[in-house]
Task: structure prediction
Amino acid sequence: RVYLNLSSLKENLTLELRDDGAGADKTASDGIWSGYLTVPEDVEPGEYTCYVVAVDSYGESIELPFTLEVKEAEKTGGLAPSLFIWLALAFISVILAFSVLRGSRKKSAEGVPPAPQNPPAFVPVSTESSPPVFQPVR
Result:
């Protein structure tokens, strides 16, 4: 088991780290332990000494200190600009896909002669005689 002891930030705050390819960990069993950390809003900016703790199957543990710097959060005042960029790209992609589909349908329709109407099986040869004479279409 590997975790971060972050109690210097906030009492009893720990973060389990993973090496199983899930969550923040990209590749299972690569020896890189990963996790996502969201610093609570009530933590003051500054430097904090925290610990990486590793516990083996016998219960033996080791703690390695590290310094975590917490900075003042930037206020965005609304939705992130990158969200608008992604929405715009998605909208443009839909329009582009629609245009390509529509253009390919027009091209295929232009290159093919119109479908023949159902021709009559017989056409009149003369309408002056009574009854009219019909000849089969070949």
Observations:
- The longest strand covers residues 46-55.
- The chain has one helix and six strands.
- The mean pLDDT is 73.
